[in-house]
Amino acid sequence: MDAKLMLARLKQAQQICTYINMKVAKGDFAAAAHMARNFIVILTQVGMPDLLREAEAIINQLNQGDAQVTIKVAKFSQTLEVKIAEQTPRVHLANEVKCPHCHADILEGSKFCGQCGKQLTS
Ligand SMILES: [Zn+2]
After folding, report:
1. pTM of the complete model
2. Distance from Cα 108 to the centre of ligand 1, integer Å
3. Which domains does the chain have, with CATH numbers?
């Protein structure tokens, strides 16, 4: 999976954390558990088995209707925050495009290098 997509998925998972805690606050455990199942899909895609186990524990607790789950969800959100912070520089690195002729930084999608004027083929 490319770094940009991975970052988007992690951010999505973090949004789900917020949504789950909102639902739990309203006592809607069924909706929260339904939403939490998206974690499994996302975390399988990004390949983070350690987080997957935490997500499964959250789903179990939601299924039991335990409001204490919000603590676990908040902690999970923090873990995601760390992963997002780790992933962000990788995305910038992946987006960094250099001219193959003069190695100047060039804008993504450019047809010609702004430095040496040569055509960029990639
Ligand atoms: Zn150039």
Report:
1. 0.73
2. 13
3. 3-96 (1.20.120)
Distance from Cα 107 to the centre of ligand 1, integer Å: 11
Distance 79 CA to ligand 1 centre (A): 41
The rounded Å distance from CA 110 to ligand 1 centre is 11
Contacts of 83 (CB under 8 A, 6+ apart): 10, 48, 51
Ligand 1 centre to CA of 91 (Å) is: 23
Q: Write the pLDDT tens digit of every residue in 44-96.
A: 999 888 899 999 999 999 999 999 999 999 999 999 999 999 888 776 666 67
Query: Are the beta carbons of 68 and 98 closer than 8 angstroms?
Result: no
Ligand 1: centre distance to CA 93 (Å): 19
